[in-house]
Design brief:
By secondary structure, this protein is mainly α. It has two domains: about 45 residues; about 100 residues, no CATH class. The protein has four helices and two strands. It has a two-stranded antiparallel sheet with strand order 1-2.
Length: about 170
């Protein structure tokens, strides 16, 4: 049964009841057609919006990937500078134990003003001291190469982790 207005008026005659019954059925059909068309329009608008958003996200991700690939060594943040300083202090301490003479202060280009480094005069004497310290059959060049390789591997791992983390953040928050 259909009501008129707020429900306080109802059809009382049979003709008005039949008329409002037919009117109700026709209005249901028209409302259904309207909702189906509205659904299609809304979904199309939303998919276009999300396609644009996905394109923006993809551009940002590509820019981030390029920046990470270009600057994959160490970032020059405060934490990495502190880490470099501690590395230099340990390096100085290690070399001062092996080569006690000839300490100098030198300039470093990567935002660290000074650090203490040894100047090695005789490579054979240093290699003898290295072998006494437990580095058998390794020269200072071999040790330096192996440490550089380890640093590169660590930087690649850090870069991969940063890329994964940035992608996850991009997916979650955007």
């Amino acid at each position: 049964m259909a009501t008129i207005g707020f429900g306080d008026f109802i059809p009382k005659t049979t003709f008005s009841k039949i008329f409002f019954g037919i009117w109700f059925i026709i209005s249901l059909i028209l409302m259904g057609i309207y909702l189906i068309n509205t659904k299609e329009v809304v979904t199309e608008l939303l998919t276009e919006k999300y396609k644009k958003e996905l394109k923006k996200i993809e551009k940002k991700r590509k820019i981030l990937d390029e920046k990470i690939m270009n600057n994959h060594i160490r970032l020059n943040s405060e934490a990495s500078v502190k880490r470099k300083l501690t590395d230099y202090v340990y390096e100085w301490y290690y070399h001062s134990m092996l080569v006690p003479s000839g300490l100098k202060i030198k300039k470093v280009p990567n935002r660290v003003s000074t650090y203490i480094q040894t100047e090695v005069g005789d490579a054979d004497a240093l290699n003898k001291r290295l072998s006494r310290a437990g580095f058998t059959n390794k020269s200072i060049e071999d040790i330096q190469k192996s440490s550089e390789e380890r640093t590169k591997k660590m930087n690649i791992r850090r870069m991969n982790f940063r890329m994964l983390f940035a992608t996850c953040l991009n997916i979650v928050f955007v």
